[in-house]
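ugh ok fine here u go
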Amino acid sequence: MEYRIVLRVKVRENSWIRIGEEHRILWEIRGLIEASSGCTMLNQVGIGSAASLVPLFEKGIWELTQSANSYLSYEALCGMGTIRDTLEFYRNLLKDCKGHPYAELYGEVVA
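structure:
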């Protein structure tokens, strides 16, 4: 399974439009994301504003580039390339959040 995060903007009561890119990562990597950034991945829920999540994604990038050895156990659990893939996920999501700071992030598990 994968986890998908999209940025969205509310246009009226219970009506949203998506903006930016769709960001996907393996659902199994949620432990690494929480450990490295402090961001909790929840299913079918608003995660928070893009602007408020920028520091968490920056922290995740810093953690995985400066202390990658501390997270090697996730490579054993989820496969080789897990740290690299998570860094790419963070960088792409961070770029979108900085480009659309007023948006809300929404996450969900997809098959």
